[in-house]
Design a protein that fits this description.
The complex is a heterodimer of chains A (121) and B (107). Chain A is an all-beta fold and 121 residues long. Chain A contains no helices and 10 strands. In chain A, a hairpin with a 4-residue loop joins strand 7 and strand 8. Chain A is globular, with a radius of gyration of 13 Å. Chain B has 107 residues and is an all-beta fold. The chains are: A mainly beta (121), B mainly beta (107). Chains A and B meet through strand 5 of A and strand 4 and strand 5 of B.
Chain lengths: 121, 107
């Protein structure tokens, strides 16, 4: 069974940094692209970032470009999202999700349970 | 960026009703559209990929159709467990955008 388990969320002050992790199991991790999607409280879904299976190609939403960095450690079956210069509008539940060989021209399945990031002073 | 417009944003329906949700793309996306269901406090769940492919384990009352710029998600006979919010997502080009969602509530 494919499982994705996010961690690392919490309360952080504006301008601060935080690193989210997503531990994956039940599939050959390095064969699949992965994505991060976020959802602000009471709002819709927003795609954040994607990374290829080898980790050599990344994509970002304009809203986080230059502030967030997606990476992965295939030896640990773990996906990361390094977030810096955090703003109040980054407050959201962050989900990691598995794509196919790519996220482009594919779909997101399954999703982790999410980790809540709250940016507030 | 490709914008996705879902309609309606809110839908009130009864058990047994046929429900149709529309997703319109601001430019052609071929068939690279997925539909997700999200229940309160839970992660989204993939229902349909590539516009019309039903995912394993998803009830056959769900169906998807369309290509290009107009897509629909149909629930043929609404069941109590189907009351949720539904999102479309385009996977034709980055950024991979979502529609604003359609909340389906009990009439």
């Amino acid at each position: 069974e494919v499982q994705l388990l996010e961690s690392g969320g919490g309360l952080i002050q504006p301008g601060g940094s935080l690193r989210l992790s997503c531990a994956a199991s039940g599939f050959t991790f390095n064969s699949y692209a992965m994505s991060w999607v976020r959802q602000a409280p009471g709002k819709g879904l927003e795609w954040v970032s994607a990374i290829s299976g080898a980790g050599d190609a990344t994509e970002y939403a304009d809203s986080v470009k230059g502030r967030f960095t997606v990476s992965r450690d295939n030896s640990k079956n773990t996906l990361y999202l390094q977030m810096s210069s955090l703003r109040a509008e980054d407050t959201a539940t962050y989900y990691c999700t598995k794509c196919s060989a790519t996220c482009w021209h594919a779909w997101f399945d399954p999703w982790g349970q999410g980790t809540l990031v709250t940016v507030s002073s | 960026d490709i914008q996705l417009t879902q309609s309606p944003s809110f839908l009130s329906a009864s058990v047994g009703d046929r429900v149709t949700i529309t997703c319109r793309a601001s430019q052609g996306i071929s068939s690279y559209l997925a539909w997700y269901q999200q229940k309160p406090g839970k992660a989204p769940n993939l229902l349909i990929s590539v516009a019309s492919t039903l995912q394993s384990g998803v009830p056959s009352r769900f169906s998807g159709s369309g290509s290009g710029t107009e897509f629909t998600l149909t629930i043929s006979s609404l069941q109590p467990e189907d009351f949720a919010t539904y999102y479309c997502q385009q996977l034709n080009s980055y950024p991979l955008t979502f529609g604003g969602g359609t909340k389906v509530e009990i009439k």
